[in-house]
């Protein structure tokens, strides 16, 4: 059994026991065996190890957990982005452009895109990345999207209810029946989660409830795109169905915030349903940001994710999202880093990632900086010096 000591860590973010909300330890070492953290403490007390990695006094964090990404697609919508920046509003309608390109692509073309984006994210410190389907929207294309996603992640999400495809435009009830019937059956072997884009122009709350309930009955966990473009009942539907996460949360009523706060664990460890904020989408659609402070002040557990997709948020960078959350959503750097690591893990109902405590997976990043603060303080700078996943450097 080979062991590795990550030594000479100037600032270790554990998200467990330690100083402040990030559980910080100064001058620390981490012992890794068989892909797991087995010991954390001062270097002087470190157990013997076969190998040593010198962090050089830099900061070490849990790898980022990106709990919301759409990587299985073909084509590019740079022209749509340029039109938006020239003043056209975002409506979500461009999703159908990507559906056409995705259906026309070969398996290998889709696979190459997933691997390229997954690799890009990994180099920016993302050690866990959820991947959704949702640009196939036929039984065969949704199944192959998830089969390809499952090659790169165990956190795969069936999003057959992304939009109603053009061929079903005048009969959405028939499309919902297809999603709940043969499409779900074909997707389930490759999916862990079910998701719906519950929004005006996509799926209303009754359709969303029907689809999520079918997915839940098939054994999938629930997540939902809700309250992005306007107010609605999506967040409350997520709470009603015990969703792991309600994503976007840009337009919330007091009742929505209360519903989320009402899912609080009795031990004070946050809420069972997480609010996942996706500031890359507001950045790329030039829209008002969600009110993170209102959620945090109500005791709601908040996660940050990229929403990486070719239309409304074509970034794979969690450090960029951390910087946006601090600058534009008034999260403290500590809140943003927690949300991008432990928060993402909560949004996936995982307790083995997003933390660096004994028993956790050895998924970590070494920064080219003395403190996690630099992720927001030095935006746009490649600060990820080294990434380790399952105790190995990919
Ligand atoms: Zn999304």
Concise summary:
34% of the residues lie in helices and 21% in strands. It has helices at 78-85, 95-104, 107-123, 139-150, 172-187, 205-217, 234-240, 254-261, 279-285, 292-297, 318-329, 333-347, 374-377, and strands spanning 3-13, 24-33, 36-41, 51-54, 59-62, 64-66, 126-129, 131-132, 156-161, 193-198, 221-226, 245-248, 274-277, 302-304, 364-367, 384-388.
How does the SSE layout of this entry go?
Layout: E1 3-13, E2 24-33, E3 36-41, E4 51-54, E5 59-62, E6 64-66, H1 78-85, H2 95-104, H3 107-123, E7 126-129, E8 131-132, H4 139-150, E9 156-161, H5 172-187, E10 193-198, H6 205-217, E11 221-226, H7 234-240, E12 245-248, H8 254-261, E13 274-277, H9 279-285, H10 292-297, E14 302-304, H11 318-329, H12 333-347, E15 364-367, H13 374-377, E16 384-388
Parallel strand pairs: 1-4, 1-5, 6-7, 8-9, 9-10, 10-11, 11-12, 12-13, 13-14
Antiparallel strand pairs: 1-2, 2-3, 5-15, 15-16
Helix pairs in contact: 3-4, 4-5, 5-6, 11-12
The protein binds zinc ion.
Zinc ion (ZN) is lined by residues 68, 70, 225, 307.
Structural key phrases:
394 residues, alpha/beta, seven-stranded mixed β-sheet, seven-stranded parallel β-sheet, 16 strands, 34% helix, globular, binds zinc ion
Task: Write a structural description.
By secondary structure, the chain is α/β, with parallel strands linked by helices. The strands form three sheets. Strands 1, 2, 3, 4, 5, 15 and 16 form a seven-stranded mixed beta sheet that branches. It has a seven-stranded parallel beta sheet with strand order 8-9-10-11-12-13-14. Strands 6-7 form a two-stranded parallel sheet. Helix 11 crosses helix 12. The longest helix has 17 residues. The model has no long low-confidence stretch (mean pLDDT 96). It binds zinc ion. Zinc ion (ZN) binds next to loops.
């Amino acid at each position: 059994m080979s062991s590795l000591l990550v030594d000479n860590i100037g600032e270790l973010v554990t998200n467990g026991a330690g100083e402040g909300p990030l559980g910080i330890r100064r001058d620390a070492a981490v012992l890794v065996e068989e892909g797991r953290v087995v010991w954390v403490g001062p270097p002087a007390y470190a157990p013997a190890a076969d190998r040593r990695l010198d962090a050089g006094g830099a900061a070490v964090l849990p790898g980022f957990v990106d709990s919301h990404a759409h990587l299985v697609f073909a084509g590019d919508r740079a022209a749509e982005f340029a039109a938006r920046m020239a003043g056209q509003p975002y409506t979500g309608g461009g999703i159908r452009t990507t559906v056409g390109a995705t259906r026309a692509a070969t398996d290998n073309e889709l696979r190459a895109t997933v691997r390229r984006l997954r690799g890009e994210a990994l180099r920016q410190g993302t050690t866990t990345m959820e991947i959704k389907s949702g640009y196939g929207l036929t039984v065969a294309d949704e199944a192959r999207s998830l089969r390809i996603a499952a090659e790169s992640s165990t956190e795969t999400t069936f999003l057959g209810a992304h939009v109603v495809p053009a061929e079903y435009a005048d009969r959405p009830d028939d499309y919902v029946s297809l999603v709940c019937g043969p499409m779900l059956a074909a997707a389930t072997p490759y999916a862990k989660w079910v998701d719906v884009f519950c929004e005006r122009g996509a799926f209303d709350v009754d359709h969303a409830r029907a689809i999520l309930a079918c997915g839940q009955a098939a054994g999938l966990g629930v997540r939902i795109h809700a309250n992005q473009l306007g107010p609605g009942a999506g967040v409350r539907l997520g709470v009603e169905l015990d969703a792991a996460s309600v994503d976007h949360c840009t337009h919330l009523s007091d009742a929505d915030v209360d519903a989320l706060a009402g899912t609080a664990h009795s031990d004070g460890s946050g809420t069972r349903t997480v609010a996942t904020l996706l500031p890359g989408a507001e950045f790329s659609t030039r829209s008002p940001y969600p009110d993170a402070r209102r959620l945090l002040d109500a005791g709601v557990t908040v996660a940050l994710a990229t929403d990486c997709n070719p239309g409304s948020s074509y970034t794979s960078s969690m450090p960029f999202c951390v910087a946006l959350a601090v600058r534009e959503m008034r999260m403290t750097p500590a809140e943003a880093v927690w949300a991008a690591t432990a928060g993402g893990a909560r949004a996936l109902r995982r307790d083995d990632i997003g933390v660096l405590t004994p028993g956790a997976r050895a998924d970590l990043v070494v920064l080219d900086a003395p403190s996690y603060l630099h992720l927001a303080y030095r935006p746009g700078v490649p600060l990820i010096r080294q990434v380790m996943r399952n105790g190995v450097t990919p």
